[in-house]
Amino acid sequence: MGRRRWLCSVVTGLCLASAMVSATFAAQTAPEAPMSTATHSRPRVLILATGGTIAGKADARSAIGYDAGGVSGQDLIAGVPGLDKLATLHVEQIANIGSQNMNDGVWFALAKRIKAAFAAHEADAVVVTHGTDTMEETAFFLQTVLKSPYPVVVTGAMRPSTAISADGPANLYEAVKVAVAPQAKGRGVMVVLNDTIHAARWVTKVSTTDVQTFHSINAGPIGYVDPASVRFLAPAVQAKAAVPDLSHAEGKLPRVEIIYGHSNMDARQIDHAIEDGARGIVLAGIGDGNASDEALAGLDRAVAKGLLVVRASRVGSGLVNRNVEVSDDTHGYVVSYDLNPQKARILLQVLIAGGVTDVHAVQAAFGQGLY
């Protein structure tokens, strides 16, 4: 992963095994200005801007201080030389926030707009600009609820638009380049930054400040991109999962808490989650998703109260396996396999929202992304 050449230094702004889930999102959100559906010589890309560091502006509080979401999506594309030669572009501002403030409402707006654009043949691909802190979660949510052969690429930046050697322009250029590549079709949602293409299921942020902050820990990247080429490392694999029916979710996902495992752990946070009305708990456990006897007893109380419990791991790599140190069959737990706690939370939320609450069906769903 060599150092990229910068295009610009500054810019101005889950098939589920059960038939319980099969319906799709209703297309509700209309574009601000419809894209042409006439015969076109260049691919059409809909860029949906949500803010983040890529749209950030410097702040005087420190030499590296900045405020996310200070530049519009339209200004972002205007600051990338040659971007308009890759595709016919249409930009819409879905939000303009730091990704620490990303929420269910923005997720649902993105999913509905993307589905509407593809259903109406308005776009051949979608690029989402996003902050890096929760980018993997947004990408995984979209991967879980959207099943389309058309590419969706999420990109962002680690340096704000006003920084020296800002990485946003190159990332945006390469995201569009990947989105319009013929071989990108059928690969679902991808994350593109720093010359690297990642699948939404695998990618995670591993550094607080490094430009090369995204890695696919358990799988590796699925390809590489530079201004001259797009290279995928393997053929596209047909997605197995069906789209869950979230028509009754009303733009909000059910409450699922992540409980972080540690030494000398008691069950206080677990009991509080039960009392607070959580529908599920994801344990960010130690090692292979383990926890103290006291914490496991608390999780048993949660299961007895009807909550779904998923064991994930805080470790950062490796899979959480069933029935190793913990007898999941006895306790009625689900394991996350390869999904980290934050992605396990999203999948569990989507399943519960879609009416999938049988522990066996939930476990099957967690294995659908493994090939």
UniProtKB/TrEMBL annotation:
Span of domain L-asparaginase N-terminal: 44-235
Keyword annotations: Hydrolase, Signal
Coiled-coil residue spans: none
Any GO BP annotation: asparagine metabolic process
UniProt-listed Enzyme Commission number(s): 3.5.1.1
Pfam families registered for this protein in UniProt: Asparaginase (PF00710), Asparaginase_C (PF17763)
Residues annotated as domain Asparaginase/glutaminase C-terminal: 255-366
EC class (word): hydrolase
Secretion signal, residue range per the UniProt entry: 1-26
Binding site for substrate: S99, T132, D133
Active site: T53, T132
Gene3D superfamilies: 3.40.50.40, L-asparaginase, N-terminal domain (3.40.50.1170)
Molecular function per GO: asparaginase activity
Family under the similarity heading: Belongs to the asparaginase 1 family.
PANTHER family xref list: 60 KDA LYSOPHOSPHOLIPASE, L-ASPARAGINASE
Name this protein carries in UniProt: L-asparaginase II
Organism: Acetobacter cibinongensis
Protein's gene: ansB
